[in-house]
């Protein structure tokens, strides 16, 4: 089979590329490892008619182009949904974003006094040389509030102690927020946030969501790609990949689950597979620097336990952050609140118990039955459901859910991209793990859109590395740099 473009991966980045190319009349084949689902991390898994995301997936973008694309694919099946999420601590649900009066009232007078005293203490005796996230938060909020609202959840998500996380992350993320200001503002006093307040409020208070979950978006995109002449090769991987030195033509052996091999030749290769996997697929990891770079890139993995419960759910929030150190669950999704059609029987509910982990650790290694039993026990312990009302469950594991930004990742990514650029032509990297960028769907899609434009134009008119986390393309980079800063994530203390 010959196509103009061979795409690896049917996630948002790969499918956006394929959709744009087939819409322009270009020939495309998409190779996807999963035998059933398209959408990658943004897929919707179905279990006995219950639908759940790999973590809830909100659709919002500052890019009008991406928003318009979603409407083009989904039409009126794209819902506008209210957002509500709270923090669980010590048997109580606290407003999120935190409101000082709500927090202090729910903590009770004794704890409230302790928080205020520990805040006063931190102001009198602050850490002088602030290097860690813990020190930064304690200085700004006091130790009690740090322990209640920051420590547990941060450590669950990132698998690092707050004392090991560098302070700049907190400074950038929680900038402008301090307890004093929060208390003043909760009384309706103080200065209002400058400009754009309404827009920010709207983004926070609602989001778009396909009626049947994010997977519906990507299933529709797949169907349109096929209708436009594209080829989907599901349950398949590339078992041999090379580029003809003289012609530049790509030659791939695509092998499906039955072992059947198809030889595909292509003028362009678009990869949304993890970049270290791509390097290995291309056999380009022979050089010591490439070997070091590919083995040096790290990921955080994730699993979700879908629990089906008889009866009415005890909260209406889309999700709840679990700041309780006595359970391992990090966040709980309530899928009926995302869209009522995610749950086939209105007399039942479907929760998603999210566990942040590393492939191969104790949580990851547990059997599905044990994970369901743990999730059931934990939701019971938290008092958010009665364990005996949970009637069924399913586990979905997501390796490489988060590309990790550690001290060396940037050097590794640069080594890999430079090495690949020097050896291969017409190779396009796109998407989250495809570019090792910890960003949302809209960013992954924008890199796919620009890649399609480059292929159609026959030249690299757009540099996908200059797409920022808001999915905005910046001609010539941001303020003179050619690679845009990514989403803020914690780094280790140097
Ligand atoms: C818990 C969680 C919550 C999130 N919430 C949101 C949210 O609210 N809003 C939002 O916009 N984004 C959210 N995201 C981010 C979003 O999931 C990703 O940005 C998006 O899915 C990235 O798309 P992608 O196509 O780049 O990669 P992926 O989604 O990873 O898709 C890559 C695809 O390629 C396939 N593949 C990989 N390697 C190979 C190979 N060698 N051969 C064949 N196929 C291969 C994979 O099977 C997969 O289908 C969230 C992510 C997580 C982990």
UniProtKB/TrEMBL annotation:
Question: Could you tell me which PANTHER family the record lists for this protein?
Answer: UDP-GALACTOPYRANOSE MUTASE (PTHR21197:SF0)
The highest taxon in the source lineage is: Bacteria
Checking InterPro entries in the record gives: FAD/NAD-bd_sf
Query: Where does it sit, as one GO cellular component term?
Result: cytosol
Record protein name field = Protoporphyrinogen oxidase
Q: Name one GO molecular function term.
A: flavin adenine dinucleotide binding
A Pfam family found in this protein is NAD_binding_8
């Amino acid at each position: 089979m010959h196509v103009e473009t061979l795409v690896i991966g049917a996630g948002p980045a790969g499918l956006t590329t394929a959709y744009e190319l087939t819409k322009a009349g270009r020939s495309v084949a998409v190779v996807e490892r999963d035998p059933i689902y398209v959408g990658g991390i943004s897929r919707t898994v179905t279990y006995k008619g219950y639908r759940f995301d790999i973590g809830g997936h909100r659709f919002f973008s500052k890019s009008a182009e991406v928003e318009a694309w979603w409407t083009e694919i989904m039409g009126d099946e794209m819902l506008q949904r209210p957002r509500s999420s709270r923090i669980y601590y010590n048997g109580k649900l606290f407003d999120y974003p935190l409101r000082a009066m709500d927090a202090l009232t729910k903590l009770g007078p004794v704890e409230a006094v302790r928080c205020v005293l520990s805040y006063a203490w931190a102001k009198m005796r602050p850490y002088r040389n602030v290097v860690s996230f813990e020190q930064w938060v304690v200085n700004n909020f006091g130790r009690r509030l740090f322990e209640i609202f920051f420590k547990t959840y941060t450590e669950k998500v990132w698998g690092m102690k707050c004392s090991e996380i560098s302070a700049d992350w907190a400074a950038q993320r929680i900038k402008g927020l301090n307890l004093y200001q929060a208390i003043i503002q909760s009384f309706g006093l103080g200065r209002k946030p400058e400009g754009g307040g309404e827009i920010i409020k709207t983004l926070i208070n609602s989001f778009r969501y396909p009626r049947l979950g994010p997977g519906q978006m990507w299933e529709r995109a797949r169907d349109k790609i096929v209708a436009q002449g594209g080829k989907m090769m599901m349950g398949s991987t590339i078992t041999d990949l090379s580029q003809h030195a003289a012609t530049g033509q790509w030659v791939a052996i695509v092998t499906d689950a039955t072992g059947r091999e198809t030889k595909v030749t292509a003028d362009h290769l678009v990869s949304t597979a993890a970049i270290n996997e791509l390097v290995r697929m291309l056999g380009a990891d022979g050089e010591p620097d490439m070997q070091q770079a590919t083995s040096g890139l790290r990921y955080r993995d994730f699993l979700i336990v879908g629990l089906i419960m008889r009866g009415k759910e005890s909260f209406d929030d889309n999700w709840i952050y679990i700041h309780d150190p006595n359970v391992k669950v990090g966040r709980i999704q309530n899928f009926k609140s995302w869209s009522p059609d995610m749950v086939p029987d209105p007399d039942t509910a479907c929760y998603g118990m999210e566990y942040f982990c590393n492939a191969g650790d104790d949580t990851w290694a547990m059997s599905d039955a044990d994970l369901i039993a743990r999730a059931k026990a934990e939701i019971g312990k938290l008092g958010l459901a009665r364990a005996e009302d949970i009637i069924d469950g399913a586990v979905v594991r997501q390796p490489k859910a988060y590309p990790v930004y550690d001290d060396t990742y940037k050097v590794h990514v640069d080594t890999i991209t430079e090495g690949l650029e020097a050896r291969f032509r017409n190779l396009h990297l796109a998407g989250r793990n495809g570019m090792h960028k910890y960003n949302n769907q809209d960013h992954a899609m924008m890199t796919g859109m620009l890649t399609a434009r480059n292929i159609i134009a026959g030249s690299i008119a757009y540099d996908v590395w200059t797409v920022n986390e808001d999915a905005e393309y910046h001609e010539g980079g941001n303020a003179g740099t050619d690679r845009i800063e990514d989403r803020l994530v914690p780094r280790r203390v140097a």
